[in-house]
Specification:
The protein is an alpha/beta fold. The chain has 14 helices and 18 strands.
Amino acid sequence: MRRLLTVLAAGVPLAAAVYLPTASAEPQTTSTPLNCAAPSVKAPTGTKVESVTAISQPGGTIQGTGVLQGTVTDVPAYCEVTVTLTHPGADDHAKVRTWLPVNGWNGRFQGLGGAAYLAGDNNVGLATAVKNGYAAVTTDAGVGDALDTSWALTSQGQVNTALLKNFASRSQHEAAVVGKAVVDGIYGKGPAYSYFNGCSTGGRQGYMEAQRYPDDYDGILANAPAVNWDEFEVATLWPQVVMNNEKTHPSSCEFNAFTAAAVKACDKLDGVKDGLVNDPSRCDFDPRRLIGTKVVCDGKELTITAADATVVRKIWDGPRTASGKKLWYGVPIGADINALAGPDPFPVPAAWVKLWVAKDPSLDLSTITYSRFTQLFKQSQAEYDKVIGTDDPDLSAFRKSGGKLLTWQGDADQYIPAQGTVQYREKVGRELGSAKKVDDFYRLFLAPGTVHCGLNKGDGTTDDLGALTAWVEHGKAPKTLPATLINAGGQSVARDLCNYPRVLRYTGHGDPALASSFTCVTPSRY
């Protein structure tokens, strides 16, 4: 359970990290007295306002709710406005919460995304946003906490399409509309700039905003985005399917041995041994090289077998049909295999496959054959791509609106393969006709050795929100994204993350711990 909570905490919107505002990108703060009273809020299209409340909150120490937890200290006083919406006929009740700093509002508005099956923020992101001068909004979409899937099926065993639509798309848009109206009602004027901020589920929600509601936000920070939801959610069950079908369950120590060996073998591909694999797609380490290797686990000596190597090879390779056709990407080389190949299936894909795809809460996942897996994968695509796939490459309306989209993702993301995000970025390039047209408004940065939603969560840091505000408000497109990363040895190293498709390459001299010792090059150059 501790591992699970740690993992889910990584999916909290990145607003939960304390950002140091960039002085050059800081709008003038307002000192207008704030009257914390329930404002008049017009219902967004297709909804009805059930209630509006306003409460003056003293701030101080804010505790995160639900399984994600978290704490933010020294939060200034704020006004909390809660608007409850319903979609007539749907019997849903979505709470949209807006927090507004009593003093020092910086003129900006921030929408916050969720994590796993949590549609919005658990107070940590809201508190951090207020602490940094933002007015911030989030929605629960009428669903539950991060692992609460009780809303998936109706009492008749059918998918609750209204709540799924809330979770997938419309509630985030409605939160943006309501939140801005609340800001205007409380401060007497709307925000100068509006931003969306999320990672994982929150990242997917950011992409949904860009695709379907291009005028909601000036800037969207959408990291490790759970786009391709209908595909990768099923694909992340693949490690369990492999182990069950191969009737081989390697221990965590054995999985770690494979990962460490692969990182060691591919470390120097960027020109220097620095504990980081800068381009995992070039790493072709063969797990069969470890057959016969002794591994000590919990005081017992284990010998890695050919069957263990087969399991790892299939997990790295990713899901395939029985005839060998590739379905999706596997766990990246260098990522923690144990995350998806533990004793029990990871609960997020397990729930998706049981409830939304099979519509059978009693489904025994351990009985899924390779052919059954292919059927479930294709069923998920067919039924849910248009609902929650969030992979529409046509971002022309968002580009035309002047919006900016910034994304980073860890190359060692153990839950959402970065190659899915790369594939989406390539599709956008083909849709718009050139990489330059994409770079004008959408930039992707891959972080070597970084886990799911890892930066600003203890696995390195970066001021991504500062980079986005500078881009939106001053036209300073980020050529690189300065970051601190954690290498395989646990040391902190500085890197200027490259704008995709470029990758880091050692210059041939200098301290490997310094960003200045690396340059960004196109992969074809080495």
